[in-house]
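Quick one, probably user error.
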């Protein structure tokens, strides 16, 4: 039987009890009303980061390709 916290436990070395304590502390600090807004902001940040990383990879690939109009030796 697999548990939800197994991937997290493998990465951070945290067990189920530690995760529950951390979630309770976050709930006490920010309150239940602000948690959905925080999660939405975090999701948008991750989306923007992935988009920027993808655009950066495409820019790197396009810089390595020589321009068809440019003559060799004219840099």
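Nope, works fine. Designed sequence:
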């Amino acid at each position: 039987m697999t548990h939800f916290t197994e991937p997290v436990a493998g990465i951070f070395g945290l067990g189920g009890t530690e995760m529950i304590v951390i979630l309770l502390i976050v709930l006490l600090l920010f309150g239940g009303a602000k948690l959905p807004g925080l999660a939405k902001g975090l999701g948008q940040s991750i989306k923007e980061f992935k988009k920027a990383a993808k655009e950066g990879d495409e820019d790197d690939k396009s810089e390595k390709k020589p321009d068809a109009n440019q003559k060799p030796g004219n840099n």
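DSSP finds three helices and no strands in the chain.
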